[in-house]
């Protein structure tokens, strides 16, 4: 049977070896594999060929094995010789190390021996001084030289003693001289101290006298007091304060740079606390409970501390909150009286009154005369003060409603007058009688010069309005102090609103706020001049002691109209001479020719 080679299950390896790139191989029986496609092979032939092939393969593998075995033997011999060499090296290294050890111990022993020897030599070496002494001792052993030396020593000792005695004498005389001089110095110091003490006592007595006169003056002057609170310099501002204070006299403040001094009712130190300032006004606030009317104003340029003094902060409140608290606490402890305290808060901005506690803060309010007499502001919200929390709430709401705008002087510049009105109605439980007192706490708008704050347009109008109303306030105070027949209350909303709290036996305190910084010197001087004119008074000759006729004010106040610092001549109240000074009010046509309202 003929079987084609491709159908046989031949080893693929064999098949490929047979077929690929080899010269045709003789397979025996005349059969050639290369021709197997054409010639069919029989099975016995194939097995025969296959066995031949395998034999050939085995013999070639045997040869390879033999070759490898020979190679292995070669490598084993090589390994053996390497091992022997390594062993040999190790032995050599060990010998070398042993040699080194021996050398090391030998060297160490040598060193120790040398060191010991050196030390022994050092210890036993005689000191040079001893050698010298020994040599000298050998030299002076001669009795003559020894005698001479002893004589020399005795001479030297005698000389030494004489010098000592001389020194003692000198020392004693020096000590007595020093004592004499120090006694003289002490005497001089005592004399000086006594002199300065007597001068100080004299000065203090003078101050007391002057204060007594001052008090008389205040009494005679009546109801208007002027305080001054300097705003302290901040560390970051640097510079030196423009003020100088007399530690013995708190009624005088000086501005050395301009050689000017101002006398006022009270000058606070720059470090004065909120509570100290309140302490000075609290007595007056208490008089509201007795049915008095009181006005407290804070006056000064923007940034000088008006709002700080009047409102302060939540942690360290100013006059407003402390006043409400004081009134509230006083009324709580009263036994035979009942009190009703009410507060309202307004602002006057551009001659327009706005309610700071109302729900419509933009509504314009007006001052009206009541049919039964007296002034009132219809529609103004009045809040009963029934707790301390209520007091805080009032301040907060009012602050939020207040008009503020930015100027070059102060970012959060107050351009309006802010007035806290507190009314206290007292009822006597036993008699049923009633009395009513009113407290007006006014944080005035900034009094700075128009040109300095560099404002224009609406802001210029604001500034002019502020200056006009401050000027009117000065005019009213001036007219009241000097008992003028006409008091120009109606010339500004502020004075008209406060009319009933300014005249009669009402009390007024003006707190001047002034910056200590040299940059604000002109504004500071203007503020102080304004205050000085409020403070000074031309008293009636019939009730005035001649010594108290006028304190050291700069100009008789009645001779001047009130002028707030202002560069704008249109808003100035007096008339100016070519040199710029204000002339007497009586000599210029007055625009304040208004009849007294009350
Ligand atoms: P004004 O109301 O006059 O424009 P402010 O009361 O707003 O001025 O004061 C301006 C700044 O100066 C505020 O930051 C205020 O806290 C600070 N200040 C004013 N007076 C004092 C003072 N006596 N001590 C410490 N800081 C003050
Ligand atoms: Mg302010």
Automatic annotation (TrEMBL):
Chief place of localization: cytoplasm
InterPro entries cross-referenced by the UniProt entry: Kinesin-like_fam, Kinesin_motor_CS, Kinesin_motor_dom, Kinesin_motor_dom_sf, P-loop_NTPase
UniProt binding sites for ATP: 300-307
Biased composition (Polar residues): 541-558, 567-580
Region (Disordered): 541-598
GO CC annotations, alphabetized: microtubule
Domain of life from the UniProt record: Eukaryota
Subcellular location: Cytoplasm, Cytoskeleton
Domain Kinesin motor: 223-537
Alphabetical UniProt keywords: ATP-binding, Cytoplasm, Cytoskeleton, Microtubule, Motor protein, Nucleotide-binding
Gene3D superfamilies to which the protein is assigned, alphabetical: Kinesin motor domain
One Pfam family cited in the UniProt record for this chain: Kinesin
GO BP annotation list: microtubule-based movement
Any one GO molecular function term: microtubule binding
Family per record: Belongs to the TRAFAC class myosin-kinesin ATPase superfamily. Kinesin family.
Protein name: Kinesin-like protein
Lineage of the species this protein comes from: Eukaryota, Metazoa, Spiralia, Lophotrochozoa, Mollusca
């Amino acid at each position: 049977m003929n079987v084609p080679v491709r159908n046989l299950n031949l080893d693929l390896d064999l098949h490929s070896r047979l077929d690929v790139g080899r010269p045709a191989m003789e397979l025996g029986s005349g059969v050639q594999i290369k021709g197997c496609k054409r010639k069919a092979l029989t099975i016995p032939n194939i097995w025969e060929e296959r066995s031949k092939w395998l034999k050939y393969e085995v013999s070639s593998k045997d040869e390879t094995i033999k070759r490898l075995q020979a190679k292995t033997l070669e490598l084993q011999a090589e390994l053996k010789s390497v091992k022997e060499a390594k062993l040999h090296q190790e032995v050599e290294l060990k010998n070398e190390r042993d040699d080194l050890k021996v050398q090391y111990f030998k060297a160490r022993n040598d060193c120790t021996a040398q060191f010991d020897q050196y030390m022994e030599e050092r210890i036993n070496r005689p000191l040079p001084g001893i050698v010298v002494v020994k040599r000298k001792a050998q030299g002076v052993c001669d009795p003559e030289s020894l005698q001479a030396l002893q004589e020399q020593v005795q001479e030297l000792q005698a000389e030494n003693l004489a010098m000592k005695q001389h020194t003692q004498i000198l020392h004693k005389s020096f000590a007595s001289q020093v004592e004499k001089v120090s006694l003289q110095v002490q005497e001089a110091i005592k004399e000086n101290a006594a002199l300065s003490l007597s001068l100080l006592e004299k000065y203090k007595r003078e101050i007391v006298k002057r204060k007594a006169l001052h008090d008389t003056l205040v009494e005679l002057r009546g109801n208007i007091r002027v305080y001054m609170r300097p705003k302290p310099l901040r560390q970051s501002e640097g510079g030196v304060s423009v003020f100088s204070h007399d530690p013995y006299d708190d009624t005088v403040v000086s501005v050395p740079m301009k050689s000017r001094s101002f006398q006022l009712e009270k000058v606070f130190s720059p470090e004065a606390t909120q509570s100290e300032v309140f302490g000075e006004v609290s007595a007056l606030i208490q008089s509201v409970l007795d049915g008095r009317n009181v006005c407290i104003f804070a006056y000064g340029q923007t940034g000088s501390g008006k709002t700080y003094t009047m409102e302060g902060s939540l942690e360290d409140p100013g006059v407003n909150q402390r006043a409400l608290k004081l009134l509230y606490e006083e009324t709580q402890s009263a036994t035979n009286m009942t009190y009703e305290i009410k507060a309202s808060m307004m602002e006057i901005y551009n001659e327009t009154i706005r309610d700071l506690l109302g729900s419509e803060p933009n509504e314009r309010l007006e001052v009206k005369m009541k049919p039964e007499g007296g002034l009132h502001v219809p529609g103004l919200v009045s809040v009963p003060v029934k707790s301390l929390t209520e007091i805080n709430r009032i301040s907060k709401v009012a602050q939020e409603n207040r008009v503020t705008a930015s100027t070059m002087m102060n970012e959060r510049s107050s351009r309006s007058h802010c007035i806290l009105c507190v009314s206290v109605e007292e009822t006597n439980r036993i008699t049923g009688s009633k009395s009513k007192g009113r407290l007006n706490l006014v944080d005035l708008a900034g009094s700075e010069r128009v040109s300095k704050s560099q404002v224009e347009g609406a802001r210029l109008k604001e500034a002019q309005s502020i200056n006009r109303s401050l000027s009117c306030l000065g005019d009213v105070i001036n007219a009241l102090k000097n008992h003028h027949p006409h008091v120009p209350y109606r010339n500004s909303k502020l004075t008209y609103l406060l009319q009933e709290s300014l005249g009669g036996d009402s009390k007024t305190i003006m707190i001047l706020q002034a910056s200590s910084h040299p940059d604000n010197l002109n504004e500071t001087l203007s503020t102080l001049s304004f205050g000085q004119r409020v403070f000074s008074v031309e008293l009636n000759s019939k009730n005035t002691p001649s010594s108290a006729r006028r304190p050291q004010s700069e100009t008789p106040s009645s001779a001047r109209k009130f002028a707030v610092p202002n560069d704008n001549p249109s808003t100035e109240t007096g008339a100016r001479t070519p040199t710029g000074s204000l002339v007497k009010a009586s000599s210029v046509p007055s625009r304040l020719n208004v009849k007294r309202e009350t």
